[in-house]
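Notes continue from the previous slide.

Worked example: a multi-chain complex. Inputs as given:
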Amino acid sequence: MREALEGSQAIARAVALCRPQVVAAYPITPQTHIVEALARLIADDLLEAELVSVESEFSAASVVLGAASAGSRSYTASASQGILLMSEVLYNISGLRVPVVLTCANRAVSSPVSIWNDHQDSMAVRDSGWIQLYCADNQEAVDTTIQAFRISERTELPVMVCVDGFTLTHTLEPIDLPEAGQVDAFLPPFRFSRSLSTARPLTQGTLVSPEFFTEMRALQHGAFALAEQEILAADRDFAGLVGRDSGGFLRVEGDREAEVAILAMGSVYGTLKDAHRSGLLGRPVRLLCLRAFRPFPAGAIREAAEGLSDLIILDRSLSPGSGGIVAHEIRSALYGSGKGPRIVNFAVGLGGRNVPGEIFREMLEALEKDPPAFSFFDLDSGKLPLPSDSVMPPS
Amino acid sequence: MTPIGSRPPSVDTTALRKVQPRFSGIESGHGACQGCGQALAARLVLEAAGPDVIVANATGCLEIFTTPWPQSAWTVPWIHSLFENAAAVAAGIEVALRAQGRTTRVLAFAGDGGTFDIGFQALSGMLERNHDVLFVCFDNEAYMNTGVQRSGSTPHGAWTNTSPAGRVRQGKRHFKKDLLAIIAAHGIPYAATASVAYPSDLRAKVRRALDVSGPSFLLLHSPCPLGWGHDSALTISVDRLAVETGLFPILEMERGHVVGSMKIRNPRPVHEYALPQFRFRHLLAETPEAREELEHLQALADANIERYGLLSDAPGPRDSGGADTVRRGGSRWG
């Protein structure tokens, strides 16, 4: 049944449908509504779970690590500075191969401080060994959250469900929440193979010498190959229950035969699709929505890019001194695969700056002017200090 | 002693104690240094607590010397996550066990760095949230695993590699953090200190802590021969001097109030404690600066004796010279 729900409420309801036994979190904008909604569900006895309101994100991640290690399905959510404070634990959770699901209500990272949306936080931990799935809308956020528990528990890898802060978390949309029976059929009770138990006292988190370290890392890396299958299987099986998928690794839509494509991650894709539908793009364009960033689906990206002359990649995070992070990885994926498209990388929508539908046509027009490999597309040079006052070179 | 908690322990510790040999949570063959106080203390804790326990261990010597992959010295379920989160990991385990209706007890192990300093926030949060966890701090008064650097627990005047004694410095300039008072301020049901020189007292406190429902805390003084610079055969006698000088008072607290202390039968001057240890040797030099610092150390010991009323009126079996000593073979408390 479709209900008008705020993104955060919908995500909380989806989490509750997965019957976690332990939820641990520390408040940070724009994640707060998710955890508040879970607290109310617990208070109203609609969810039987232990809510641990910890004293920091560091402890939030540590509590779910401990709880999942002891065999309880566990959930946490955070954003921005919280993700960075957690980062040491995030690496540890993945290295210990502990299944946990985390919602990242994507937000910019300080400094300058901004409470608004971009992808810098989750990108900062892209190498932490977490599966990362990016949601284009709140229905995908709901469905991906439920899928995430199954993917995590089958692969023994943690999953980060990335949901744009405010743009999705604080936006009302009509949402179809699955029935409890559907979720129960999709997601069996959590049975952790290495649960802490006196019946089988295992030692976990040991000191590993150079003699074994590479093998441990290779196992962790190898688990992502399994994750690729599980991500596709979860999306396919869930679609079989509810009649809609979440895009697998990535969606290819719009004018599929077009030679120009725009690739986006997260909620900007909705704006892009809208612009396409409304004829704002002014020409045929292939639309690509990348959902899985870890594991990185290089094969699917190569396939989606076939026949392209130009590929515009929108990045909402930045590696200062290098450029956009998503584009960097896609360039790697396409390198050496024959005559790849020209890749033009635009940083856009940083720190919550609005990305209007009209901007995509400007990007397409910019292709004619031989743009640099990377640039800030929505930069307003009038707001910059004079070159004489700044370390920024004159443009 | 009367148990102060309402919940029965998940194992019959009295029956367990009668089983010989005692339960061994850490097997021999690990890589601790000769005379390691922490290895001894951890073994004593598990003798009293095991086998129905899960241990969350902070990064440190104990983690390193017991778990060189693919070997492990542990016979209880054991997890090491990070340096600063043992209390939070233990809290997570505890809520999971509660959610599953399991009665296994949860222990958190950390050194003084993982307790007084980097792990302090997680510890305070765990105590405040009233998790049913026994947090054990093995206090060897410096960062030994990284090669002897000062911590918040390092005593005043002690040499470490980051508080060296030199021409214008006499070791650590700051005081040892009064952690027990901070723990007590959380109002938790039970907190205590103990020393490896008094193993029966130590074990009794572990049992008492596990009788309690809710968070409990043990500060276990555990000499590090390498870091303190004493002969590895002297671990027990050096730690007895820590108690007998008053520098490390042996206390029990309930809900923030001192309810018991080990009386000192024959108070020893601090220079006797300093003498066998390299970390205090500079205080024994014939200089005015060294003499002044040694006086400071004596004053700190005297202040502890005064504050907690540690002088005994008459010899007793439970005082610092009583039967509960390794020297006399240890007839036990409780």
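Summary box: Confidence is low (pLDDT under 50) at residues 326-334 of chain B. The domain at 13-308 of chain B is CATH 3.40.50.970 (Rossmann fold).
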